[in-house]
Amino acid sequence: MAKKVVATLKTGKGNAFTKVIKVVKSPKTGAYAFKEEIVLNELVNDFLKK
């Protein structure tokens, strides 16, 4: 699936997007999980601040 996403983003306006991976700690169990999103380059800092 990752290959399909990368291939799609290389065409057209794909340079305007970035795949961001953030580590999130669960408040119930204390375990860490990863949250992935594809966001606009301008909104990367806003995504990481949440």
- Biggest sheet record: 2 strands, antiparallel
Topology pattern, helix = H, strand = E: HEEH
User: Terminal Cα separation, in Å?
Assistant: 26 Å
- Major sheet: order of its strands? 1-2
- Regions with pLDDT < 50 over 5+ consecutive residues? none
Q: What value does the average pLDDT take?
A: 81
Q: Please tally the β strands and state the result.
A: 2
Strand content: 35-45%
| Number of separate helices | 2
Radius of gyration equals 13 Å
Structural class: alpha+beta
Portion of residues in helices?
Answer: 25-40%
Question: How many individual domains?
Answer: 1
What does this structure look like?
This protein has 50 residues and is of the alpha+beta class. It has one domain (2-49). It is 30% helix and 36% strand. It has helices at residues 2-10, 44-49; strands at residues 17-25, 32-40. The radius of gyration is 13 Å and the shape is elongated. The model has no long low-confidence stretch (mean pLDDT 81).
Q: What secondary-structure arrangement, pairings included, does this model have?
A:
Elements: H1 2-10, E1 17-25, E2 32-40, H2 44-49
Antiparallel strand pairs: 1-2
